Amino acid sequence: MGGARSGRGEDMAAAAALGPGPLRVGFVGAGRMAEAIAQGFIRAGKVEAQHIVASAPSDRNLCHFQALGCQTTHSNQEVLQSCLLVFFATKPHVLPAVLAEVASVVTTEHILVSVAAGVSLSTLEELLPPTTRVLRVSPNLPCLVQEGSVVMARGRHAGSSEAKLLQTLLEACGQCEEVPEAHMDIHTGLSGSGVAFVCTFSEALAEGAIKMGMPSGLAHRIVAQTLLGTAKMLQQKEQHPAQLRTDVCTPGGTTIYGLHALEQGGLRAATMSAVEAATCRARELSKK
User: Which candidate, 65, 61, 57, 106, places its Cα nearest to that of 83?
Assistant: First the structure.
């Protein structure tokens, strides 16, 4: 279900933004999301494992990168000295200290990408040398299976070639779109937190079937496939969800009775409020 994948020629053209030779990608921070992004790059053939370098304070997370065939180190500066495209995937509260540590080795040739939620582009640019090319990325958990929803925003000194390079690479993790920075927190509320909202709905659907007598395992498998199939139809047909809902809903049939029950339970309003609450919380955390 991921976005349209770019060809090898486009990958190479975009990588020209970082000069000749093989593309080398660094990760400062080696947690689950960093691993998912690196794994996407390798599986899609966009970056060779031997050309990925990851750093972390301990070996606890680095072992996952080592299993992929990547190089690892405990030195954040070494990552920037080895790679011109570097993802910062640390916890948000740790990032300012990490940027201060590596600032002395940042050059005008680097492209730096922050995966840390809530740290604004202006804050990143203040903590780094003048004219540093900086971009922000907001991924979600399905990047782990290369079906993520990723949005990106560029800083003042990052141009279209840098944005194209990053988008081309991140399409290995799913769908990737460039958005205004103001939409980053909304994406967190919609897609980052949305994974949990969808899982809650999935669980409720299955429990409805279990209540009516279906075995639990079978119910959960059917629900997962129903969600997958529905999502594929929405993507491939490019229809508004209301149209697909109408296609399923026949007069006096089972679906309209079920939809009536959902409306009585306030599903639509509750879901809208959930996205609003998660977005507002993301904005609050951005200001801290």
Answer: 106
DSSP assignment of 169-202 equals: HHGGGEEEEE--GGGHHHHIIIIITHHHHHHHHH
Phi-psi region of 162 (alpha: psi -120 to 50; beta: other; left: phi over 0): alpha
C-alpha span between 137 and 242 (Å, rounded): 30
pLDDT tens digits, one per residue of 12-59: 545 555 666 789 999 999 999 999 999 999 999 999 999 999 999 988
- Residue 2: both structure tokens together: 């991921």
Rg (CA), the chain: 21
Q: Please give the torsion angle defined by the CA atoms of residues 29, 31, 33 and 36, in that order, rounded to the nearest 10 degrees.
A: 100
Q: Distance (Å, rounded) from C-alpha 34 to C-alpha 88?
A: 8
pTM as predicted: 0.86
Q: What does the pLDDT look like over 215-255, one tens digit per residue?
A: 999 999 999 999 999 999 999 988 899 999 999 999 999 99
Tokens 């000295």 belong to residue: 81
Place of tokens 């949005």: 151
Place of tokens 């991924």: 139
Report the DSSP pairing between strands 133-138 and 148-154: antiparallel
The answer for residues whose C-beta is within 8 angstroms of residue 237's C-beta and 6 or more apart is 244
DSSP assignment of 136-157 equals: EEE--GGGGGT-EEEEEEE-TT
Q: Which residues pair with 149 in a beta bridge?
A: 175
Which residue has 């349209």 as its token pair?
Answer: 4
282 neighbors 117 (Cβ within 8 angstroms): yes
What size, in residues, is the chain? 288
Token readout for 92 is 């948000």
The tokens describing 52, both together, are: 């990925």
Report the distance separating Cα 226 and Cα 209, nearest Å. Answer: 13
